Every structure is written in structure tokens, then in C-alpha cells.
Amino acid sequence: MANTKSAKKRVRQNEKRHLRNRVHSGRARTAVKKARIAIAKGDQEQAQEAVRLASKWLDHAATKGSLHKNTAARSKSRLMKQLAQMEAKK
């Protein structure tokens, strides 16, 4: 447990940031999962919309600092690749 006043403040700040980061990264993670499910179903319109939303939330999380920008870019790239493969099969 923290002993100094500054260490106690740091614990409080970290808890607030942790909760804020969970909201952003959780929303992005959910959007990515929905996009992968839509791609697996093979519905092109639904998959494109889901990938667009996932891309939006990944960018948002990266902007807020909840995700590293390269992590968001990598996830978006993989989703786009999966979407392109699904569209090529049709």
C-alpha cells in the first residue's frame, strides 16, 4: 500500500485512467469481434459496416491513448484483409 501522499494520489489517478481506458479499449474490442462475426457469416454489406465501425472505435481508442496507434493500425489492417478475402470468395 502507498505510504506517501503523492503515491496515494498516483493510485487514485491510475484507477481513474484504468476505468477510462477499459471503456475505450472494450468498445473497440467489441466492435472488432462483431466485425469478425459478420465476416464469418459472409454478408458483405453487414461486414463492411461492421468493419467501418470497428475501424472508427479502434481509431478512437488510439486517439485517447487507450491503445497504441500501431496496435490499432495492425488490428484495422487485419480486419481489412479478412474483409477483402471474404469479398474475393464471392
CATH superfamily: Ribosomal protein S20
List the uncertain runs: none
Overall radius of gyration: 17 Å
CATH class bucket: Mainly Alpha
Q: What summary fits the major beta sheet? A: none
Number of domains: 1
Distance between the termini: 58 Å
Sum up the overall morphology in one term: elongated
What portion of the residues fall into strands of 2 or more residues? under 5%
Question: What is the N-to-C order of secondary-structure elements (H for helix, E for strand)?
Answer: HHH
Number of strands: 0
Helix content: over 70%
Structure annotation, total helices: 3
CATH architectural group? Up-down Bundle
**Helix- and strand-based class?**
mainly alpha
Mean pLDDT: 96
Determine the CATH topology: Methane Monooxygenase Hydroxylase, Chain G, domain 1
